[in-house]
Design goal:
Layout: H1 20-35, H2 38-57, H3 65-80
Helix pairs in contact: 1-2, 2-3
């Protein structure tokens, strides 16, 4: 059986805090529910989670899940306005 390996390039050590896995799970579930295509939605969610963590981590020693969640709408807007290169929809 052929299995793909994916590497996420987003994220920061500031995300090493309680609740961060739950936050990721929620983002994954939301994108799968919205777009239905499981693999691309999951990959996008993981990257988005890390990117939001980087934004929060740039100004905070610890990236709290609540602060990370606040970044998601802004990032979704920013990335939804870019030309599509994925199979997310």
């Amino acid at each position: 059986s052929h299995q793909d390996i994916f590497q996420n390039t987003s994220g920061t050590a500031a995300m090493a805090t309680g609740g961060m896995g739950d936050t990721l799970t929620g983002i994954i579930a939301a994108l799968i529910a919205q777009f239905k295509n499981v693999l691309p939605a999951t990959l996008a969610a993981v990257y988005l989670h890390g990117l939001a963590g980087q934004l929060v981590g740039a100004t905070h020693y610890v990236a709290l899940p609540s602060a990370l969640i606040e970044q998601i709408p802004k990032l979704m807007t920013q990335y939804s306005q870019r030309p599509s290169t994925s199979e997310l929809t």
